[in-house]
Amino acid sequence: MEGILSERRSYVAGKWVEGDEAFAVENPADESTVTELSATPPAEIERAVVEARHSFDDGVWADAAPAERARVLRAFLDHVEASRAALVATMVAEAGQPPSFAERAQFLAGLGLARGTIDLYLSMAHEEANPVPADELVRGRVALSLRRHEPVGVVSAITPYNGAIIMAMQKIVPALMAGNSVVLRPSPLTPLSSLVFGAAADAAGLPPGVLSVVVENGSAGAELLTTHPAVDMVSFTGSSAVGRRILAQAAPTIKHVGLELGGKSAQIYLPDAVHRAAAGAVAVVAATAGQACVAATRMLVPRERKDEVLDAVSQAYSALVVGAPTDPSTTLGPVISAAQRERCEHFVSLAVEHGGGVVRGGGRPGGLDRGYYFEPTVLDLPDNANPAAQEEIFGPVIGIIGYRDLDDAVRMANDSAYGLSGQVYGADTAAATAVARRLRTGAVNVNTALFSAYAPGGGYKQSGLGRERGTDGIRAYQEVKHLVVGELR
C-alpha cells in the first residue's frame, strides 16, 4: 500500500532482524492485506530481553544524566515527527481509523504527551530528604535520610490495537526517561506503525539494548515478556481478561505490573444538562467506532426524560456516516475484526433477551460488502443488570438507562466490575462535581475533558492497577530506595 511505513522487520538491540515466517496485516475497512511483516523469531525475543538486561545492568542508559536522556529522547521524538505522513497512513490502513483521528488523537497527541512527559520528569525530584522526626534522627545518629527514586530495570511494554502509537508513547517515554530498558510488543492486529520507534531509536543514537520492538502474529512472545525472569516490570493495556492472565504469568517472579484494562464507563446527565446527551452519545462512537477503553457507553438520564433522550440520540446516530475511513464524509469507520463485529452482534442480542430494546442500528450496515462495519446502535436498557450495561462491548453501541434520582444514578454508575473513567454533566457545576466525587473510577470528567502528560489516568477495580501519565505514571517505572547515612561508631 502506497505511503505507509516501509520497514517490515523487528528491531532488536540496535539491529533490524529478519524472521523466517511472515504474517499478514489486514485492513479492517476492506479486508485487504496491508502488507506482510517478518515475525520476530522466539530466539530474537529472548535476545531482546537479555540485551535489555545487559544494557540496564551495565548502566549505559540508566547511569546517564537525566539531561542527556532527555536530549536523546527529544531527538527520538523528532524522528517520529518527521515520519508524520507515512505513520498516519499506516495507522489508517492497519487500524481502520479516520485520518483526522490518526493524526490528531494518536500522532499529535502522542507527541505532545511524550514531550510533556520529558519536561515533567525533569521538573520532579528523584532524590529528596525523608521526613523523619528530628528526635528519631538524633537517637539513631543519622546524618542523612534520603528517599531515592530509581529505575525499575527491564520493562516489557505491551500495547493494544486501538491506540498503538499513543499508548506506546505513554509507556516507553516515561520508562526510558526514568532510565529503564524497554522491549515493546505491539498488538498483532496493528504492529506495523510501532516499527517507527525502532527507526527513531537508530536515528537518535539510543544505546543498543535500551529499546527493542518485536512483532508477532500470536501471543507466545508476549507470554515470554510477561514470564521471563530478566524482566522486572510488565506494562500492559488491553482487556481485563488478558490482564488477569498477565498477573498470573508475572506472579512467580513477583514482577511490577501496570495494567490499564477494560471499562464500562457511565456518563451521568443531571436534569439541567439533558440537552447535552446527544452530543455525548456521538462522542462515544465517532472516529473510534466505540473502540476506546474509556468510552462512556452507559448513559444515565432522569427516568422521566428517557424517551426524549432516546429520540435525540437516535436522531444523532442516524446522521452518522458509516464507511471507509479514507472517505472524507465518513464519521464512523469499521471495528478491528470479524470477531469484534460478532461481539457487537452478540451483546445486542443479549440486551434484547434480557428485556432491552434496539432503538436504532443493531446490525451490519447495508451497502458495505467488505470490511468489519457495525451500525451505530442505541439500546433502551431497562436496568443496569442488563448484560449490555455490565460487559465491555468495544464497539459503536450505547445503552441508555433511566435513574430515579442522583443517588440512584451514582449507585448504578458504581454497580460495575470496572472503574476506568466517567463523565458528569450539569449546569450546576457544584452539584455535578459532588456527584463526580462519589464515583468509584480512576478519572471523572465534569462538563469537559483533559488528556495531558501532567494528568494521571488508570482504573479502579477490574479496570487496572497503577496509573499512566502524570507524576504517578512516572513513579510507576521507578523503585523507591531509602538511603540512610550515619557516622561510624
TrEMBL record:
Residues 16-482 form the Aldehyde dehydrogenase domain. SUPFAM superfamilies: ALDH-like. It comes from the Bacteria. The keyword Oxidoreductase applies. The active site is at E260. It catalyses: an aldehyde + NAD(+) + H2O = a carboxylate + NADH + 2 H(+). Keywords: Oxidoreductase. Its EC number is 1.2.1.3. The keyword Methyltransferase does not apply. Belongs to the aldehyde dehydrogenase family. This is aldehyde dehydrogenase (NAD(+)). It comes from Actinomadura vinacea.
